[in-house]
Amino acid sequence: MKEKKQLAVVILAAGESTRMGGVRSKALLQLLGKPLLSYVLNAAVSLKPQKVVVVVGKDKEKVTSITREYNAHVVVQEKRLGTGHAFLTARDALKGFQGTVLVLMGDTPLLKGSLLRRLVRTSALCAVASAHLDSPGHYGRIIRDADDSFVEIKEARHLSPKEQNIKEVNTGVYAFQAPEVWPFLEKLKLSSTSEYYLTDVPGIMASQGLKVEVIKFSSMIPFSGVNTPADFHFCLTTLQREINEQLMNRGVIIHHPESTWISPDARVEKGVEIFPYTFILGKSKISAGAIIGPHVYVENSSIGAFTQILAFTHLEGVRIGRECLIGPYARLRPGTRVDSGARVGNFVEMKNTTFGQGSKANHLTYLGDATVGKGVNVGAGVITCNYDGVKKHPTFIGDGAFIGSDCQLVAPVKIGQGAYIGAGSTITKDVPPGALGISRAPQKNIEGYARKKRKKGS
Predict the structure, then answer these.
(1) Could you tell me the CATH superfamily of domain 7-223?
(2) CATH superfamily of 229-437
(3) What's the pTM?
(4) Mutual orientation of helices 36-45 and 113-120 as an angle, nearest 10°?
(5) Catalytic amino acids?
(6) What are the pLDDT digits (tens) for 119-138?
(7) Which residues on neighbouring strands pair with residue 397, listed in sequence order?
């Protein structure tokens, strides 16, 4: 049996991001709620390599945090001296490795592992991925000789007038054989911009009569990098279109795909209906028959079948059961669970709260660190006072309880099953099941007060 060839992937993600404003690393940019680097890592790990190495520079701690779930090895390029130097920085992490090293750029979110398999199967010392572009612009060109053999990669600014007409461009993706590649990286010369270019390595190899294979792809789109804000917009809208088309083909109703943004990690079942200006991000799950939007934000949340999420609702890290009605203008924060048939209305906020089956909080309410039973009615203006300035405390509300409007439940406190809380009460002690809890001051009416007040002011 033929021994399986070893594969390693090196991702270069140490750029300064100067054309993107230079404020933060491009690797951290969010596309549909997911860091740009994560897309490249997904493509890399889909190939099942023996090792993934990520070369980081700017914002190295934050970029490193993205790599952890992929079990990638991180190396730091302390001095950013170009792509050739960045690749060489990965050498120690690949010490003793023998096999193919696939080199990817960390700003190419449209890459797919299925596309890259063509490169990793190469037996050449170097394989360069190329593509045809009618308007090559700033892309480096693939230079060939009269026999159509590869000669070099030439940067756009160095092209002769005749070479400007070449339409075959370098995609920036390479496959090299290790350890043979390392001496060639050491031969790189510093450019006029004080950088060592990885693009020079294939040309050096070819000049020594070594085999360099050019693998031509039909489209440049999968290799598109994020170098400018316009590039970012192109990649973002391309991903958006791909995801939405896939979902619509599976039976998801999207009223206005151009204004609907759905993460590639989200699961949206057939029969879901999504209205415009809706974001469904992270590992969210939307069950069949749910209606979402318009103007709804959902992140890392699950929404049950036939639940409706009304306009301007914000959901983050929550679980919502079947046949619920949420919103408009509701905000449910991490740790919240809303059980089936419940209603959460306008300007209601919940955090780390369980809201029971069939319960209602229709207006202007805050429930934090609360456990609310089944069939509870929570009136307008109710709040749980869960924070004492040092610690958070829980509130428990039993099944069938009725909480009147404008009440403050000062935690820790328990409201018993079927209990009533009178409107305007501040509850600081437990209320037994079936009891009425009330803490209003006695009402006092002063006859003739208004007439005397007006007379005094005239």
Answers:
(1) Spore Coat Polysaccharide Biosynthesis Protein SpsA; Chain A (3.90.550.10)
(2) Hexapeptide repeat proteins (2.160.10.10)
(3) 0.88
(4) 50
(5) 363
(6) 988 889 999 999 998 888 88
(7) 372, 415
